[in-house]
Design a protein that fits this description.
single chain; about 110 residues; mainly beta
Length: about 110
């Protein structure tokens, strides 16, 4: 069955960096459109970044210039490199294989 397993979350100081990973299985990863979303407590899920099968990317305005989405089809893994992190980036991040599959999420906390 389809599995998406995120890792790499944790506690980081403002201005710091983290790299999230999402290990995918059970579908043809190289052909899939992959996305990162995030959601804070009591808030709607928010789109973060998208990468198509050919590597075309686009980002939410709130993360543009700070976050980079990438994929390694040889490893069936999606990444999100997050730089210049801000306290408002403190939320749970989810990996998504469009249109239907979701990971369990990984918590990112940006705090001094």
């Amino acid at each position: 069955q389809v599995q998406l397993v995120e890792s790499g979350g944790g506690l980081v100081q403002p201005g710091g960096s983290l790299r999230l990973s999402c290990a995918a299985a059970g579908f043809t990863f190289s052909s899939a459109t992959m996305r990162w979303y995030r959601r804070g407590p009591g808030k709607e899920r928010e789109f973060v970044a998208n990468i198509g099968p050919s590597g075309t990317t686009y980002y939410a305005d709130s993360v543009k210039g700070r976050f980079t989405i990438s994929r390694d089809s040889a490893k069936n893994t999606l990444y999100l490199q997050m730089n210049s992190l801000k306290p408002e980036d403190t939320v749970v991040y989810y990996c998504h294989a469009y249109p239907a599959y979701w990971g369990q999420g990984t918590q990112v906390t940006v705090s001094s």
